[in-house]
Amino acid sequence: GQNIDQPTEMTATEGAIVQINCTYQTSGFNGLFWYQQHAGEAPTFLSYNVLDGLEEKGRFSSFLSRSKGYSYLLLKELQMKDSASYLCAVSDSNYQLIWGAGTKLIIKP
Amino acid sequence: DTAVSQTPKYLVTQMGNDKSIKCEQNLGHDTMYWYKQDSKKFLKIMFSYNNKELIINETVPNRFSPKSPDKAHLNLHINSLELGDSAVYFCASMPGEVETQYFGPGTRLLVL
Fold first, then answer.
1. Closest approach of A79 to chain B, Cα-based (Å)
2. Between the CA of residue A71 and those of A20, A31, A105, what are the distances in Å?
């Protein structure tokens, strides 16, 4: 079956760095997405990786290793507004997005 | 301008009722989706429409029926609502096959 695993919850301190991991097992691979979802709101796009390596976008970076079925989202200089759930999703061979359950990130002052 | 809009935002209804949720996107995207997000926060895809053609139909009960009058609209009709249908329903649209999905604000459905 198809599976996306990510930690349920993480806690970090304002100003620090946090890494949220995602491992996946899917039938085919057409890219991996990270979305951010604040409580009570819709998911919003953060990043897309289809080739191995690191994609950097401001304070956020996303890494992909296709051979390991592994990705991480790196958040630097954490701000209180970064408190949210972070969803990992993989596009499979049918271009269907398979979603993880999300990692709830709690930022403490 | 709102890119993907849904109505209503909140819906409280009794078991057994029939209800509809509407979705509209003004982005000119080819594909639209309906997702259900339950209390455990899993996003489960329910339906996908590409140019008015159903291309994904997950194993959802046939009480749920998508209706797409045109490329910009994908409505969700639910018959004989059950307690387990309580969830947040998100509409999303996407320009191509592997692209960013843009989500609507969600419809919070509570079945009593």
1. 23
2. 8, 11, 17
Chain B residues with CB inside 8 Å of A92's CB? Answer: none
pLDDT digits (tens, 9 = 90+) for B43-82: 888 988 887 678 777 778 989 999 988 889 999 999 999 9
pLDDT in tens, A62-77: 999 999 999 999 999 9
pLDDT of amino acid B80: 97
First-to-last alpha carbon distance for chain A, in angstroms, is: 40
Of the candidates A83, A109, A94, which has an alpha carbon nearest to the alpha carbon of residue A20?
A83
Q: What is the pLDDT of residue A94?
A: 82
Q: Is-contact A89 A4, C-beta < 8 A? A: yes
Contact B60, B46 (CB under 8 A): yes
| Identity of the residue in B98, B103, B105 whose CB atom sits nearest the CB atom of A95 | B98
**Of B42, B100, B102, which is closest to A101 when you measure between CB atoms?**
B42
